[in-house]
Design goal:
By secondary structure, the protein is an alpha/beta fold. It folds into two domains: 15-215, L-asparaginase, N-terminal domain (Rossmann fold), CATH 3.40.50.1170; 229-292 and 314-356, 3-Layer(aba) Sandwich (Rossmann fold), CATH 3.40.50. It has helices spanning 45-50, 76-92, 108-118, 141-152, 259-270, 330-340, 347-356; strands at 15-22, 28-29, 38-39, 60-69, 96-102, 125-128, 162-166, 169-172, 177-178, 186-187, 193-198, 201-204, 229-233, 249-253, 274-278, 323-324. Bound molecules: glutamine.
């Protein structure tokens, strides 16, 4: 006969797949119980689950170890592999209520946003991490994981896209950012908080209206590698970046470019590189112009309006349009540009994506 102390799984509970990638939530210290240093991505998915017996009251949990390390080692190739895996398992397995991904916090918002754009499913995908290692004093991983699983099995979580659940908050992956390196450090700024998780479970108050999840146009199944998109920063006195080889796109974090920077990006656009500008602080609400919006009628000509016409011989055709990101952080604008470039290189089409997602 088998002897086991593990509680019998309650087969009436919804099923959740936990995909572990590492991070502090899997971190172990040299001196457990201290405030000392630790190695991120040490505990396995099974060990993480075993440390939170309370989980078994809410879900039957299966685990998958995708990787185990710090999230700084996550690459765009891994985003792609993770997205394909999550989408496939949600499509193939009717019995799964949702997926929870454990992740290091440094790059958590980027992986979450990539999944938000590319996992075409109405089932919840929750990304969760911790700021304190599993062996530390008052670790936040167990309570965050419990909250994440409770959101993953909540009927109200359906169609809300990819969410980050940490510190009792449910935040849309579109808005979430790590604003500081302590517990409570994940926020959507003024936006993106969909609800809270209290003792009675999740309480949703809002739903994202930008396109995501099952409505996403970004099908990654036939994408083998993501376009190369660089992220640059503009600053007073800046002369613009130089690249080894030509990227497919560049996202520029800028509040206004110098003339020299502007010339570099214009030349890149003429060479076929899609350039997207994004407000450096991630809150540019109104700058993106909808290419399909009706234009105001031209002002009637007034006396003294006419500038001397330039001779045709010196007229240079305009460079392809610049894309403007709307209310995204620079890192996320770069990700949306990468994903959009899998569909088109036309900056106007890409602008439309930037207005929809
Ligand atoms: N709090 C964390 O998870 C940070 C740990 C590590 N730097 C990572 O991103 O994986």
């Amino acid at each position: 006969a088998q002897t086991s102390d593990a509680p019998k799984p309650n087969t009436r509970l919804p099923k959740v797949l936990l995909i572990a990638t590492g991070g502090t939530i899997a971190g172990v210290q040299d001196a457990p119980g201290s405030l000392g240093s630790y190695r991120a991505g040490t505990l396995t998915a099974e060990q993480i689950i075993a440390s939170v017996p309370e989980l078994s009251r809410f879900a039957q949990i299966e685990t998958e170890q995708f990787s185990n390390g710090p999230s700084t080692s996550i690459t765009p190739a891994q985003w792609l592999a993770l997205s394909k895996r999550v989408e496939k398992v949600l499509k193939d397995r009717d019995d799964l209520a949702g997926v929870v991904v454990t992740h290091g916090t440094d790059r958590l918002e980027e992986t979450a946003f990539f999944l938000y754009l590319t996992v075409r499913s109405d089932k919840p995908v929750i990304v969760v991490g911790a700021q304190r290692p599993a062996t530390g004093i008052s670790p936040d991983g167990p309570i965050n994981l419990l909250a994440a699983v409770r959101v993953a099995v909540a009927p109200q979580a359906k169609s809300k896209g990819v969410m980050v659940v940490m510190d009792d908050r449910i935040i849309s992956a579109r808005e979430v950012r790590k604003i500081y390196q302590r517990t409570g450090g994940f926020s959507g700024g003024e936006m993106g908080m969909l609800g809270v998780v209290g003792g009675n479970g999740p309480d949703f108050l809002f739903a994202p209206t930008r396109r995501h999840g099952e409505d996403s146009e970004f099908d990654m199944r036939k994408v083998d590698s993501l376009p190369r998109v660089e992220l640059t920063y503009s600053y007073p006195g800046g002369t613009g970046p130089r690249f080894d080889g030509q990227p497919d796109g560049v996202a520029v974090a800028t509040n206004g470019m110098t003339r020299a920077e502007s010339d570099v990006y214009t030349a890149l656009r003429r060479a076929g590189v899609v350039v997207a500008t994004v407000f450096a602080y991630g809150d540019n609400m109104s700058a993106a112009r909808d290419p399909d919006a009706p234009r105001p009628a031209a002002r009637p000509a007034a006396p003294g309006d006419s500038a001397p016409a330039r001779p045709d011989s010196v007229r240079v055709p305009p460079a392809p349009a610049m894309v403007t990101a709307q209310h995204l952080t620079p890192a996320k604008a770069r990700i949306l540009l990468m994903v959009a470039l899998t569909r088109t290189k036309d900056p106007l089409e890409i602008q439309r994506y930037f207005l929809r997602y």
